[in-house]
């Protein structure tokens, strides 16, 4: 088949790389426009744009993919199917129905209809899910609500953070799209409608999601830290300054301090009282500082026994 690929971030790279090596012909790639990135705010192409440029594939980088000129450029490719992986723009009906098969497919990083939205991986960890995966669905007007042709499942490790899980799901998305395209090309794909009553939402992560509330149980705080790592990092306050906790573990023993109270251990480590159990930080970061293990952090910024974290 002749394929148009829509994608932008690193998450989409394994799928496009697989398609470029496979039997189908990638006739065009559509990605977000080049944006300023990094501390120097230098303009760089998206990871998908860079891969397309390196591969010599026709690349479109529109501000709005539904613009008439973009639609005409896509029509000229005579594509049979579109593949979407973390593109980042709304796809209009004209774009969705443009390929000769009449639709686009999307690899979504959850077990639909659970966790529809922009941040399904972080929300799966926040919800305490033990299982996630990739759902290959048809793209429709309602976000992540189209019928599903294929599901690949993946266990979430008890200590796994969002960064590591994202990498594993990106690789699984490439496998899932590869199989789904083979099924579609052979006319053996079957589509299962989603049950909207089972749908949950996974909106974009913001600063409120990163805040640690010490009245919550240690297990919930641990999940939040994992969901926010490596960025934006789960955050609390220490003496009026922002403190990010990037990695931690749970000590379920009873607490004898108010939530947020710090206990410095005889071995030089520390633990923080929560609504149920203790949270043991393993990696910390001050605003603008380096990410350090707890021992190295405390050498440069001691936290006294009895200090209280939080607003």
Would you give an account of this structure?
It is elongated, with a radius of gyration of 22 Å. The model has no long low-confidence stretch (mean pLDDT 95). With 311 residues, the chain is α/β, with parallel strands linked by helices. It has nine helices and 15 strands. Helix 1 (13-21) runs parallel beside helix 2 (47-55), helix 1 (13-21) runs parallel beside helix 6 (162-185) and helix 5 (120-126) packs antiparallel against helix 8. The chain has helices at 13-21, 47-55, 68-75, 93-96, 120-126, 162-185, 207-210, 218-228, 294-300, and strands at residues 2-7, 25-30, 35-37, 42-44, 59-60, 81-85, 104-108, 131-138, 148-155, 234-238, 241-251, 262-264, 270-273, 278-286, 292-293. It has two domains: 2-198, Formyl transferase, N-terminal domain (Rossmann fold), CATH 3.40.50.170; 207-300, Methionyl-tRNA Fmet Formyltransferase, Chain A, domain 2 (Roll), CATH 3.10.25. A seven-stranded mixed β-sheet has the order 5-2-1-6-7-8-9. Strands 10, 11, 12, 13, 14 and 15 form a six-stranded antiparallel β-sheet that branches. The chain has a two-stranded antiparallel sheet with strand order 3-4.
